[in-house]
Amino acid sequence: MDRWQAMRIFVKVAETGSFAESARDLHMSAPAITRAIASLEDTIGARLFVRTTRSVKLTEAGGRYFEDCRRILTDIAEAEAAAAGSYAKPSGTLSVTAPALFGQLFVLPIVTEYLDIHPTMAARTFFVDRPVNIVEEGIDVAIRIGNLADSGFVATKVGSVRRVICGAPSYFAERGIPTTPGDLKGHRIAVSTSAWASPEWRFLREERVTVHPGLQCNTNEAAIAAATSGWALTRVLHYQIGQALLDGNLQVVLGEFEEPPLPIYVIYPEGRHAPAKVRAFTDIAVTRLRANRLLN
Predict the structure, then answer these.
(1) Which CATH number fits domain 3-84: 1.10.940.10, 1.10.10.10, 1.20.1250.20, 3.30.700.20?
(2) How far apart are the C-alpha atoms of 13 and 54, rounded to whole Å?
(3) 276-291 vs 108-117: helix axis angle to the nearest 10?
(4) Least confident of 36-40, 121-125, 283-287
(5) Is the pLDDT confidence value at 86 over 60?
(6) Strands 190-192 and 93-98
């Protein structure tokens, strides 16, 4: 039995935790599975599994080898697919994630444009205000706002956004305009709990102000609506109120105290092996997002 087939059997046993189930899945006999694992262990010189009458579990060495085998088998599958031409043309379903409001405002139009260009494709969007593990949750492309941890993914910067404090002209006419961050202690505050992780608002030169919101909303839209109505000030990313600013329904204050802008990235995990559906989408997304004046 060649090494590739033995690795394939090993990965299947590790995933199922069962020699018998692996045999059924691979259309092989149980003794053949057992011999393949034993031969692999002899070749490597280490035990890969701890076997009992009820379970099969990876050893520490087996766990490391399992991750390496999965990566190697994936690379082989991608190389074969590329040689066969399946990576030359977008096919299948594209999964895209982004922050909720950002996705609705800026990513959804890109997705529908992409589907118009590639009518045989399907797409799934996952717009949520929480970190998404794009590998575990089966996501092809993610749009992220903020500084990225070193993940090994391909990341292309497409713009930036500012965190701003805003209110309605009617609010400022009644309660005045704050001129320093410390002035916020005398103002009504509305926050979104999806974005409000700390009572401290940070400003330029590491200045911090503890705020006491009179209204906590579970969505950004609700907090923005409270500000637009003239009831309170709120703090949001500036793209979230772009139209309200243009219409004069909201205005930004304390702009000279803002923290540095947050970068926006388009990321995906496959690197040079990215399938055509991912490459085609990211080409459009990078172009459209970089051209959007609200994001620069």
Answers:
(1) 1.10.10.10
(2) 14
(3) 130
(4) 36-40
(5) no
(6) unpaired
